[in-house]
Amino acid sequence: MAQIRDDFRICQARRRVLVMGAVGALGAMAGMPALAQKAGGGKSRIGVIGSGRIGGTIGGLWVKAGHPVMFSSRHPESLKPMIDPLGPLAQAGTVAQALAFADVLLLAVPYGAVPDVGKQGTWQGKIVLDATNAVSPRDGAIVEEVKANGIGATTAKYLPGARIVRVFNFTSAGDFARESHRKGAPMAVPMAGNDAAALTVAAQLVRDAGFEPVVVGGLSSAERFAPGGKLFHQVGTADEFRRAMAQ
Prior knowledge:
Layout: H1 2-30, H2 34-37, E1 46-49, H3 53-64, E2 69-72, H4 80-83, E3 90-93, H5 95-101, E4 104-107, H6 114-117, E5 127-130, H7 142-149, H8 151-158, E6 163-167, H9 173-179, E7 188-193, H10 196-208, E8 212-217, H11 238-246
Helix pairs in contact: 3-9, 7-8
């Protein structure tokens, strides 16, 4: 009988260990970043900062691909004509609301607005797809800072802690709308970034929008497909884009 009681206590102890281990594992899963849980093919919650031509076009393509998208503006009510035709996956909000809502953000504001946007919430750990371009005379003195330090580094300065990927800035909104999911080889979309996981997320969102991602290099290489770079407005297939990169 003593042996039976000892065996019973051992079994109970083992069961407690197994239960505690399972609870710990579930807790760890619950604490995982949302993007990690989406590795199996789930949809990302996307915030669009700047809902003009680029933001509206790319954000609309993501809605059609099944992603929930919050388009943001200082005056969200003004976005109703754009939001309503996109259906229930599209909504409007402020920049702060989009930051709180999103796993991934598309930055598509005039570059002169980037410092102010950076003050609208917490960017730490957020994946930011930076589709901006610094243009004179529209964007003022910050253009000189971009020329001196690079556009990727400048965006990172004003969005502290963000995981920046430069993408969707190399051509016009018209090209993106026209070439999305085209027949044959898809249009190449160049990307640059230093965070491998963020590049992976960005690449999937490029595909979801109907294009083929091409990684040009680290964040400093983003100048190659910004205005004035040799790869700016290099519209073609991925093979054609890579050949242009090699020249």
